[in-house]
Write a structure and sequence with these properties.
Strand content: under 5%
Number of helices: 5
Number of strands: 0
Radius of gyration: 15 Å
Structural class: mainly alpha
Amino acid sequence: MNINFEQAPIEKDIQGLSQEIKERQAESNVEVSSETEVKDFLKTKIGDSVVRAKTNIQSSDSTLDENKTLPDYLINESKEIKNKVEQLITLAFNEGIEKSIKEATKSGPFILDAFHDALTSKLYDELKKRKLLN
């Protein structure tokens, strides 16, 4: 999947996330954050919107099992699920994170969680590629 990350509106999201990471490093007196720390920050940042969206899904669909544990990886999932997550990532980079989260909520909590995990990794990779992380 080839995505042009330098398109707006994701550009604004990437720059904002980069700035927040730099501010967090300055507050912690840390020059370089580990990959795990940055990914955790991205998950938290993106996750705030995802949690709100998932809560809306669960409150509107009483048939969902709230205790169901979702896998972290999509390796063993169907091609359909993988394609849906890829489409949502493409949407995020073409039209922005918030719009892609709204779209992901229409596919249920599994897709939403998988999208959240995949987007976190893609954003981390893009921030590193652009040298926006120390």
